[in-house]
Amino acid sequence: MNSKRLIALAMVVFSTAATAVLADSTPVSGIQTADMNKAVRAQNDFFEYANGAWLRKVQIPPDRSRYGVDVMMAEQALLQMRELIQGVRSANDADARKVGDLYDSFMDEARIEQEGVKPLQPEFELIDAIKSADDIGPLMAQLDRVGVATPIGIFVAPDAKRSSRYALWFSQSGLGLPDRDYYLSDDAKLLGFRTKYREHVAKMLTLLGDAHAVDEAARILALETDLARIQWTRVANRDPQKTYNPLSLAQLQELAPSIDWKSYLAKGSVPDPRPTMIVRQPDYLKGLSGLIKSTPLSTWKEYFRYQLLSDNAPYLTHAFVDEDFAFAQGVLRDTPKNQERWKRGCELVDQVLGEASGKLYVAKYFPPKAKARIDELVANLLKAYARSVDQLSWMSEATKVEARAKLRKINVKVGYPRRWRDYSKLVISPRDVLGNVRRGVEFEYDRRLGQLGGPVDRDEWLMTAPTVNAYYDPQLNEIVFPAGILQLPVFNPDAEDAFNYGATGATIGHEISHGFDDEGSQFDSDGNLRDWWTAEDHAKFKAKTDKLVREYNRFEPVPGFHVNGELTLGENIADIAGIEIAYKAYIASLNGRTPPVIDGLSADQRFYLGYAQSWLSKTRDAALIELVKSNPHAPEKYRVNGVVVHMPSFYDAFAVKSGDRLYLGPEERVTLW
117 in helix, strand or coil? Predict the structure, then answer.
């Protein structure tokens, strides 16, 4: 089946009438009316009203744990990327050839089957060679360098209190299950996941040839459970003040004496002079130091062997690939079938050579017209934010001065980087997929370490251009919108403004507002961790957002599993603030004009339907459990129904009255901006 046909199938769930200019020049609404369920009252369940027909007729594909607008856009990007890869075989550009060679190495299944686990032998020998607990720290640094998860993760990022300079950060890591609750909870479902995990570890080690794999798996699970007990919760990790702990080498050694930190840094190739070192969870490192001494060396070796095997399983023989998928996607997310190999190959290219392949992507699939329209939307959203700050009744003038400065300094990145990454030193072979992955990880590791001691690169992107996502970085005070998210059906350059402000504008507003949520508001206009709010402003803001914690705690997407209102607070704040500002920006863009009624829908109705349809999605129950346990985002249904209830114009647009299920009394509504 050709790729054009596949693209057509990926988009079949959307009515074509909404994505083309009509013959009589009637404005295009952008709303997928065929996906709506008008038998449901908008006042009772707006998510179902906007998306219900789609939810009933479309099944989640067997190779996905969830399916929706973002997955459709990602699928389209994969198809586009495959076409690009197939076209670089004879390219004169060195990076383009590397893209093709990396993809070919992954698709060479016969060679991969022949090689088996031999390419991992150097790392297995490193693990086998350790003689005492003193060797564990340096080994962790060596494994981290080649992309193997260990109990300590290190990364390079700006210093939170000196945002113009980079620091070396240390964070807890090393669990094979999605969250510490999977190890510690007595819930029957999570207990079941633990049992399946132990069985999975045993199967992987059996494939490796271990004669005592079952016993090894039990010890590995016990060690990971000990790690889970000393790790911080995801809610605790959201506090940027508590996770900012700069330490000297001597202080690190005193905190965690079982780790030879000087040797750890040397084996990790951390340059001299030593950079600022920041520990996110100090008492975790202290607890880990105790575990290193109390856990038998043989168990640590078993644990590291499994981590090495697990992290490289997607690039090994079919037996390892199948078992890795059966647990990581099948058990944990209830996904029946692995993705086709070509899709996984394209995803590998994006991971290793993302800016080389991204350069090819935007040249063909991101027209200047789309970028210009997004630039305009962003500018209008920022203006609306500024006007809103001026009019806030709950924020003091002193804090408003700082807020205006932060808005003025937000760096906006749309589509793709201004400067593409140089891959000339990265060696890629068409016949060595594991070597390519290892060299790719080391290339990125060395590139990041090379930033230490230098000024922060404000042109750098943390997502590739085809990525269907966006982000705000508080330490750089920047919003980033890759080309991948700026496409149909969420962004329609031919649709009238109400739709695009509701769908894409709310996303833009969401990312801007992260600069002012419960975390982002602790960073100033230069990205420094500094409290620029008055105590009274903090108290008023907390009183508002406490209502959101209570609201989201009530949502129960799977029986027995509730949304965590504290974990999701930042994203919920951003959702509400984003739609508030998008609506204000849309009204301002009309300049007093009366917008038309299209498809029987008023402009305000199209705005909210555009927002709701941008979250069109359905998810398997196991994946929902993982999401509520480990993800700071609420499920899509609640990112619609939990948000629109706070918007006065939603009540007007759909005549929501007391007694309707989506009715919130004015005293319970949260107005932020």
Answer: coil
User: How far out from the chain centre does Cα 306 lie?
Assistant: 26
Given a contact cutoff of 8 angstroms between Cβ atoms, the answer to whether 344 and 329 are in contact is no
What 3-state class would DSSP assign to 258? coil
Return d(Cα 129, Cα 663) in angstroms, integer: 65
Is the per-residue pLDDT at 18 higher than 70?
Answer: no
The beta-carbon contacts of 213-220 under 8 Å, at least 24 apart in sequence, are: 216/302, 216/306, 217/306, 219/299, 219/302, 219/303, 220/176, 220/299, 220/302, 220/303, 220/306
Rounded Cα distance between 441 and 563, Å, is 35
Segment holding 481, helix H or strand E: strand 478-482
pLDDT bracket for residue 25 (50, 70, 90): low
> Other C-beta atoms within 10 Å of 61: how many?
16
pLDDT digits (tens, 9 = 90+) for 159-218: 999 999 999 999 999 999 999 999 999 999 999 999 999 999 999 999 999 999 999 999
Average pLDDT estimate for 624-635: 98
Query: SS3 of 453, please?
Result: coil
- C-beta neighbour count of 172 within 10 angstroms: 22
User: Taking the mean position of all CA atoms in its chain, how far away is CA 529?
Assistant: 22
Cβ neighbours around 233 below 10 Å, total: 13
- pTM: predicted TM-score of the whole model, two decimal places: 0.93
User: Does the bond joining 296 to the residue before it have cis omega, within 30 degrees of 0?
Assistant: no
Average pLDDT over residues 596-614: 96
3 state DSSP class of 157? strand
Residues with Cβ within 8 Å of residue 383, at least 6 apart in sequence: 585, 588
Single-letter code of the amino acid located at 459: D
CA atoms within 13 A on the CB side of 464: 22
Name the 3-class secondary structure at 163. Answer: strand
